[in-house]
Amino acid sequence: MKIKNIAVIAHVDHGKTTLVDEMLKQSGTLRKLEEERVLDSFDLERERGITILSKNTAIFYKDYKINIIDTPGHSDFSGEVERVLKMVDGVLLLVDAQEGVMPQTKFVVRKALSLGLKPILVVNKIDKPAAEPDRVVDEVFDLFVDMDATEEQLEFPVIYASAKNGYAKLNLEDDNNDLLPLFETIISHIPEPSGSSDAPLQMQIFTLDYDNYVGRIGIARVFNGIVKKGMAAKVIGQNGEIREGRITKLYTFKGLERLEVDEAPVGDIVAVAGFEELNIGDTIADYENPVPLSPLHIEEPTISVFI
Ligand code: GDP
Question: Membrane spanning segments where (predicted)?
């Protein structure tokens, strides 16, 4: 199975939740029972309002697993947007076909472009009577130019979608009624994760979670090596301090659920438990040969002082 790691970036209300929900349903990732549970958790999310912690979703399509890492749709959490974007190989930029580019669209686009990610533009809500999809594509292109996008980033594919009605098209005239063009574009356009299975283990924690049964859980991307349940490992903090530990539980994602596994390949997004202390930005590294990944810099200064 091959892996694609993406984030969906959007201004709030442009349809991120609806799109991911529909991708889950149409990919056949979920059995009927699971499907009901997904809807429940999305409803809960809506009640709580804004998403603060990143959620992870994995969608199975053909022989691919598409890990979708959620990003908060609020600029107060800029450090979190950045660290999520460092875990993915491409982004779906979702823009409302009527509203067009909004402040948060600009904020997340700037981050994604500066990290060198290749975006796929999804113009959503094309079913709205006042939708102007062509204008929105032009607006996004101009925004990219203003933000010094590379040639490659400027050649972004465009998908016209109605997440609510569950369809995506490559051309406005197509009368397609499913999301297959979107899945196919993700497969063809988003780069495969880099890294080597043979190299010493290196994975980086980008989100923390807690479970009453297993305790502290770290969500991480495997950048090198293969991670195995039961492995002894070194944990290297962002300040360079090294601790020892053992991976007692290992999970990958399926739909919105965590699935316990014995090992996970390079490139995958996993959850691990067993460590007394885990912090965002920590590298979980090979026991014999611990090499840290570059820090995630989660605290961002809001003002710069020049002396
Ligand atoms: P998020 O904040 O980006 O996660 O946005 P949601 O997925 O919660 O969607 C915000 C609102 O837009 C909801 O009322 C959705 O039903 C609606 N919506 C989402 N996709 C579409 C679409 O394709 N067409 C229309 N007309 N409404 C949509």
Answer: none
ipTM of this predicted complex? 0.99
CA 94 to ligand 1: nearest atom: 3
Give the residue from 71, 69, 116 showing the smallest Cα distance to 219. 69
Q: What is the pLDDT of residues 101-139, one digit of tens each?
A: 998 889 889 999 999 999 999 999 999 999 999 999 999
Sign of the alpha-carbon dihedral angle for 245, 249, 252, 257: negative
User: How many angstroms does the Cα of residue 208 sit away from the middle of ligand 1?
Assistant: 28
pLDDT surpassing 80 at residue 63: yes
Of the candidates 122, 121, 125, 120, the one whose C-alpha atom is nearest the C-alpha of residue 97 is 125
* β-bridge mates for residue 272, sequence order: 218, 250
Distance between CA atoms of residues 274 and 70, nearest Å: 24
Residue 282 is labelled as binding a ligand: no
Per residue in 177-215, pLDDT (tens digit) is: 999 999 999 999 999 999 999 999 999 999 888 888 888
Pocket probe for ligand 1: among 8, 18, 104, the residue whose CB has the most ligand atoms within 8 Å is: 18
Output the CA 15–ligand 1 centroid distance in Å.
Answer: 4
Residue with the larger pLDDT of the pair 237 and 256:
237
Q: Assess whether the C-beta atom of 16 lies below 6 angstroms from ligand 1.
A: yes
d(CA 149, CA 143): 9
Name the maximum alpha-carbon separation found in the chain.
Answer: 61
> Which run of H or E residues covers position 227?
strand 227-228
Check pocket membership of 14 for ligand 1, CB cut-off 6 A: yes
Single out the residue of 91, 156, 98 nearest to residue 124, CA to CA.
98
Asked if residues 84 and 54 have their Cβ atoms less than 8 Å apart, the reply is: yes
**Is 18 annotated among the ligand-binding residues?**
yes
| CA–CA dist 296, 239 (Å, integer) | 11
